[in-house]
Design brief:
The chain is mainly beta. Helix content is 5%, strand content 38%. It contains 1 helix and 9 strands, in the order H-E-E-E-E-E-E-E-E-E. It has a 5-stranded mixed β-sheet, with no helix packed on it. It is elongated and about 85 Å long. The termini are far apart.
């Protein structure tokens, strides 16, 4: 891959607003960008959710559906007046269907620098194992 191609791939994406999302609270709903990786032990999902505090994120797993929600609260205090605001506040929302191989009881989550990382371990039965051949 050339340097030009790499720089194109690494461009910062703006927040993408969910189209037609139904909601019960006013304000925009954004779709967090995600990267998903898999190895023999599990799946790692990294979701960009800048501006969201740990207490404002909800991770819900029901019937093989993983739902991520979060709220970006305004940064200014009540006694401050906006002069220029380019960073939009609102909510994040995204759902994923989990494969049967994920052990849903052992899902782990961490938030660091605006990136939510979920580790979705595979169930023991789904992990690859080597079968040894016995010599007679």
């Amino acid at each position: 891959m050339t340097n030009e191609a790499q720089s194109r791939d690494m461009q910062v994406k703006g927040k993408q607003e969910a189209a037609g999302a139904e909601q019960t609270r006013p304000g925009p709903v954004f779709i967090p960008s995600v990267d998903i990786f898999e190895n023999e032990n599990g799946i790692t999902l990294m979701a960009d959710m800048p501006g969201v505090a740990t207490d404002d994120i909800n991770i819900d797993v029901r019937e093989n559906t993983l739902t991520l929600t979060g709220e970006i609260k305004p940064f200014e205090n009540a006694d401050e007046t906006d002069i220029l605001v380019e960073y939009e506040t609102g909510q994040y929302y995204r759902q994923f269907t989990l494969p049967e191989l994920v052990d849903q009881e052992k899902i782990d989550a961490q938030l660091k620098d605006g990136v939510l990382t979920l580790v979705l371990p595979k169930a023991e039965a789904a992990k690859p194992r080597k079968i040894e051949i016995k010599n007679n």
